[in-house]
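User: Structure with adenosine-5'-diphosphate, tokens only please.
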Amino acid sequence: MSLIELRGASRTYQIGERRVTALEAVDLTVDVGEFVVVLGPSGCGKTTLLNLVGALDVASEGEVTVAGHHIVGASRGELSRFRRETVSFVFQTFNLFQALTAIENVQFGVDVTGRHREEPDRAMTVLERVGLQDRAHHFPHQLSGGEQQRVAIARALATGNPVLLADEPTGELDFRTGVQILELLHEQAHVGVTVIIVTHNREIARVADRVVELGSGRVTADGPPVGGQVPINELRW
Amino acid sequence: MGWLWLRWSWRDLRSRWVQVTAIAFIIALGSGTYSGLTSTSEWRRRSYDASYARLRMYDLRVSLAAGSFVDTAALSAVGTELESAGTLRSSAVQLVGPIQVDASQRGRTILVPGRVVGVEPVRNGPTVSTLSITAGRGLRPTDSARPVAVLDEHFGKRRNVGPGDRIRVSGKVGLTVVGRGVSPEHFILLGDAGTFTTEANFALTFVPIGTAGELLGQPGRANALAVRTRPGVSVTQARRALSDAFAAGFPDVGVTITARAADPGYRLLYDDIEGDQRLYNIFAVLILLGAAFAAFNLTTRIVEAQRREIGIGMALGVPSRRLAVRPVLVGMQIAALGAGLGVVVGLGVGSLMIQVLRSYFPLPVWRQDFQLGIFLRGAALGIALPFVATLVPVWRAVRVAPIDAIRTGVVTKRGRGLGWLAKIRLPGRSVTALPVRNVFRQLRRTVMTALGVAASIAVLLGVVGMLDSFRATIDHASKELGRSAPNRLAVTLATFDLETSSAVTTTRASPLIRRSQTELQLPGSVRRAGVKPIDLLVTISDLQSPIWHPTIHERVRGDGVVLTEKAADDLGVRPGDRVLLRLPYREGLTSYRYVEQAVPVIGLSAMPLRSLAWMDRRVGDSLTNLAGITNFVVVEPKAGVRTEEVQRALFGVSGVSSVQLVTDFADSLQKELDRAVGILLIVEGAVLLLALLIAFNAASISADDRARENATMFAFGYPLRSVVAMEIGESLLVGIIGTAVGLLGGWLLLDWLVTELLPTTLPDLQIVTALSGQTLLIAVLLGVLAVALAPLLTVRKLRRMDVPSTLRVVE
Ligand SMILES: Nc1ncnc2c1ncn2[C@@H]1O[C@H](COP(=O)(O)OP(=O)(O)O)[C@@H](O)[C@H]1O
Ligand SMILES: [Mg+2]
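Assistant:
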């Protein structure tokens, strides 16, 4: 059975009289340890899709199942618990806690699931994994954008949750930094985390195992990157 | 400038309408309470003026020396002659004397001292010092010499005695109460010189003058003449004419002529205005200050939220002036709303104050004329406050480089000065650090919120602490009075009497009494060369009396007078020093003259009432030539005898004017004060409301500020209750800081009020600064608990948060 399964998932918004369809009858399955890039132009529904998988949002129609959890129809508490224990997010704008240091932000990831609370050094270990052990006691505003994003990734990894969702994680970053971040996320797939990255950047998609293309809320293509997968160091954008 | 900016600011306003309304309310509360409180003296003065005018308060009042009476017709003739001579407009004779009133009704025993005021029973009268009838009817010509009475409104209302009820006066005579009313001479109830009288325990009784003659055993006689001068005649002229007329008509009788301005009640009423106003002003300014902190804080936050957009505008080359328009417009809109509501609050506070005062002083006229000037000033403050409060942050916002304004993360200079905080490791989970960090991260904000809370707490402490101090003072007096023979009764005689007189011997021989002692209570005064005299009520008794005697501190050898610490302080004397004591001196059988003599102070009493003084019989007798004479008998009931039985028994003894439980004094004073707190309760209410609004607002705005971080937490599945708990943690810290500062400030304020302000408004009382545990508890509950729990009000908002949209927003 696949880890993530969307069947006929739609999401519509009602704005006054008008009905906006952000996502329309999407069918999608993702297996454990896959590294999937969701690609498409701005406004095509990528973020919406990611939010449905991450249970930040609930499909108006269809079914969403992640790690055996049915998200449509679940209670608020169940959704919260699901997010706590199954998924973790990396955002385009980092969204670090400004009053917490790097290590404390990571510790938040440890604390929130409670799964690794007995490992006293987990936060530091994870921070080392993203190469920021030197910056552990810096506050977000003392870090560069790339460093902040790496802290955000460490925070997500610290949860130990099986699914990592990243919405335009390189959107705010320069090319070189973006590549580093991408590399970091790619590595996670190798250690068994299922990673879904959203981007509007076709170049980034070339490193993926699999590219899901969206257009106007529908899946328009699903498969290996066009022109074949390339190693990260061959990217240019 | 275009409509765009106006519309934009209008949208800003709408998107934050809860906070905007709350700020407007805070401003309204601040400026309204300010206008309401600062306008009181004006309408109080006008109400008093109008009331005195309507009731034809005397301009001059001639009272005969205690114990002197003259023929009513002869006294009346003095007035009529001066009327026809063109000096007086009108005059009215009175017969005034002490009585004992049994106003017991249907099982309620009410035995109190009182005063009978015999007046001419003319319709709508008397012509001078007219009675304002509040219930039932007034006295009529047909009532002449009949046993009917109009009971003073103060007493009647407090004891629930009114038209149709019957009372008994000085033993036997029954009177039917036909109405209740007030005389302008008694808008405020005052007992005899130096004593404290309370409404519930003093029955002022107006009767036809003929009836008064019967009651006092002085038929056909009178002892006072109240007059109104003719327009154009000065008080000095009239006084001279009166004193000449009395000297000619009654050469053997001593008289005191009191001008209206010297009437103790009149003076007290007007003097109170000044003192009260000073107090209200202090509270008004403090409340305004609290509101200012809050408003400043809140508008700053609103402007900060727009900072990025301001930066974008700057980047686009929009002039700062124009960029400032939007936040300033928001400030103006808040100001207009706040000032408008402020007028409503101000009028509300004013009418509450009138209600309280009305219940306290039954004046016939209470007018709360709208005082445009004061309200305009309040409104101006209400407008200036948020205006300045927006200008400052706007000015700061448009000064930053656009690049800084646009950059994320740096937007609000988050984290400045956080370095040292990172070193503080807090136990437990990462999020336990957040509330503490947030408090210090935005230090200015924290300080402003805390100061707003602190100002409220300080005012609360000042207000309630004053009441506590009063209570502590009374308590102190109560303890001293009840130190021995707490059930003893003070029997006041109608006049000075020989110790061998039947009134005294009958009283002392009562089988209900264990022991007794005769004393003298004399009105007098004390001064030191160059210092204003202090009114005294000197008790001449046995200073070693086994029944009761005052605790004397710093006793020095020799004979002399015991003053209260307060009196000694005010005079600047210590035990051993001499003071000039003015006391009545007996010259003939029933004639007295005031004589001033230098007397050493031999000790001090801690009794809080400055007018009290004591002297040993031996010394007193020689100073006053009153050996063998008494006007006051202290009796201690036998064990098992109820004080009420003694009261009833002695009530019937002729020559006895009143029988009162000594400790009643403190009890009734206490009740009186409880009633007088009404106005302070208004302030207290305003302050409570202010603190709650500040707390709510702070919570609501911080929830807005934190929306993104909260959304992030929700994205990680962090439960709502934990997010709320964090907010509560932060509020709790702010509350604790604010309360701590408020408690400190409140104590300083209270101490200042009690030691600096009260002595000028209540010179007769020595009040010690005191705060009860209950007051502290209320302050802490309000400051800490209410502020801490305020975030609960944002739960709904948090629950309804659209997490994806909140996360999507690029700040
Ligand atoms: N909360 C919302 N209300 C209304 N429309 C929305 C909302 N969120 C997203 N949309 C609309 O749904 C569509 C897809 O949005 P999104 O998933 O954010 O696109 P993408 O991430 O691919 O840029 C857009 O047209 C957007 O306007
Ligand atoms: Mg998107």
